[in-house]
TrEMBL record:
<feature type="domain" description="Amino acid transporter transmembrane">
    <location>
        <begin position="4"/>
        <end position="401"/>
    </location>
</feature>
<feature type="transmembrane region" description="Helical">
    <location>
        <begin position="230"/>
        <end position="254"/>
    </location>
</feature>
<keyword id="KW-0812">Transmembrane</keyword>
<feature type="transmembrane region" description="Helical">
    <location>
        <begin position="156"/>
        <end position="180"/>
    </location>
</feature>
<dbReference type="InterPro" id="IPR013057">
    <property type="entry name" value="AA_transpt_TM"/>
</dbReference>
<dbReference type="GO" id="GO:0005774">
    <property type="term" value="C:vacuolar membrane"/>
</dbReference>
<dbReference type="GO" id="GO:0015179">
    <property type="term" value="F:L-amino acid transmembrane transporter activity"/>
</dbReference>
<protein>
    <recommendedName>
        <fullName>Amino acid transporter transmembrane domain-containing protein</fullName>
    </recommendedName>
</protein>
<feature type="transmembrane region" description="Helical">
    <location>
        <begin position="29"/>
        <end position="51"/>
    </location>
</feature>
<feature type="transmembrane region" description="Helical">
    <location>
        <begin position="200"/>
        <end position="218"/>
    </location>
</feature>
<keyword id="KW-0472">Membrane</keyword>
<feature type="transmembrane region" description="Helical">
    <location>
        <begin position="343"/>
        <end position="363"/>
    </location>
</feature>
<keyword id="KW-1133">Transmembrane helix</keyword>
<dbReference type="Pfam" id="PF01490">
    <property type="entry name" value="Aa_trans"/>
</dbReference>
<feature type="transmembrane region" description="Helical">
    <location>
        <begin position="321"/>
        <end position="337"/>
    </location>
</feature>
<feature type="transmembrane region" description="Helical">
    <location>
        <begin position="274"/>
        <end position="301"/>
    </location>
</feature>
């Protein structure tokens, strides 16, 4: 229970929390606060739908456990006849492809952020007199990241996730200390932002909170999977904490810094004070410790297909080689591409909205079709709203990103 809770907290409490003040700036003080809570609720609900659909389909088909793509395939295959033709499309694993892209880009962004932090620390403490080539810093990062990427059992990653969660909370407390060090004022703060920036707020909030890719692997790895849902369950406790922290740091961060709010709230902290430097270092360590968890998703998707093409006696060695190569690819891209922001935003706008909101709603609808759509088909209308919200967020964010290029 507590291991799954630590992993889910770490999977949802990443560097995205640092961007929440900027997200609220794009949404407005009032809209940003309400919108953050709304996005948190809808992300939690879509995760509940996915896990519940997986439960239902496992029981219906007498299958012990299902992954993301398998859940989609069985839903189409066991649903009404008009959906059967889409089961073969599901088996092509488009959902898994999106997850691989997403969970490869996310640690790539983390590597880029860690490089920036390392460069800042070296530059600050050497007064600009020491220059270390970017490739050297990346190589040093590989030394720390690779051992975490080689951990194959989620159970052994629990201590890293737990320590990372503690570091994030400590950093959060120090950040709030700076925010509340002086009286706050709403003067000059926008309550509801312009319509053109609202999609940026929504996509940032969804990007920050949505961690659906690790949900089914976590639930399947629990000794008592029934404790994942329920009240209180792992999901509700974790997402309750996540939404509260994101709402607090986003609302008060923008209330403190207003138009001077940076893309990461750590950039608003004084660079010459030790507590502010501790915040950046603790966040860096927490992000570093999350690499094992982030690697788990693309490895769990890709490796089972690859190992079928390898002799059984080479499976262990092959998996280690695959993990090391993936690690080198991720860190290498971070070193080679100077500005990953637009690329990550462009792909994230599609992947996060589709994986986190659209697909779970479709799976839930098909699973319940002709069985349990509720009075006046209220579940159908609710899921249509979720898919519409997903499409609106993805399309509007794509338009916003493309227009800014």
């Amino acid at each position: 229970f507590f291991g799954a809770l630590a992993h889910l907290l770490k999977g949802s409490l990443g560097a995205g929390v640092l961007a929440m003040p900027m997200a609220v700036k794009n949404g407005g003080l009032a809209f940003g606060l309400v919108g953050t809570i709304f996005v948190g609720l809808i992300c939690t609900h879509t995760v509940q739908m996915l896990v519940q659909s997986s439960y239902t389909l496992c029981k219906r088909e007498n299958i012990p456990s299902l992954g993301f793509a398998e859940t989609a395939e069985i839903a189409f295959k066991s649903g009404p006849p008009m959906f059967h033709k889409f089961s073969s499309f599901s088996r092509l694993d488009p959902w898994d492809c999106e997850q691989c892209i997403r969970y490869t880009l996310k640690p790539t962004a983390y590597a880029s952020w860690l490089f920036s932090l390392d460069h800042w620390l070296i530059d600050y403490y050497s007064s600009g007199e020491i220059y270390i080539d970017k490739r050297v810093i990346i190589a040093i990062l590989l030394v720390f990241v690779t051992p975490l990427a080689l951990v194959r059992n989620l159970k052994f990653l629990v201590p890293f996730s737990a320590v990372a969660d503690v570091f994030i909370v400590v950093s959060f407390i120090i950040t709030l200390y700076y925010i509340f060090a002086e009286p706050l004022s709403t003067e000059g703060k926008v309550l509801i932002a312009e319509a053109s920036t609202i999609p940026i707020f929504l996509s940032t909030a969804i990007f920050a909170m949505e961690g659906i890719g690790i949900v089914l692997p976590l639930e399947n790895s629990m000794e008592k999977p029934e404790k994942f849902l329920g009240c209180p369950g792992v999901l509700n406790i974790a997402m309750g904490i996540v939404v509260a922290l994101y709402a607090i740091i986003g609302f008060f961060g923008y209330l403190k810094y207003g138009d001077k709010t940076e893309g990461s709230v750590t950039l608003n902290l004084p660079v010459d004070e030790i507590p502010a430097q501790i915040v950046k270092i603790l966040y860096a360590i927490s992000i570093l410790f999350s690499y094992g968890l982030q690697f788990f998703v693309p490895t769990a998707i890709v490796w089972p297909n690859l190992k079928e093409k390898i002799d059984k006696k080479y499976h262990n060695m092959g998996e280690h080689i695959y993990r090391i190569l993936l690690c080198c690819l991720i860190v290498g891209v971070a070193a080679a591409v100077p500005e990953l922001g637009p690329i990550i935003s462009l792909i994230g706008a599609v992947c996060f909205s589709t994986l986190g909101l659209f697909i779970p709603s479709v799976i839930d609808t098909i699973t319940r079709w002709d069985r349990d759509l509720g009075t006046l088909n209220w579940r159908l209308w609710k899921n249509l709203f979720c898919t519409g919200f997903s499409n609106f967020t993805a399309v509007s964010e794509l338009i916003s990103i493309i227009s800014s290029l």
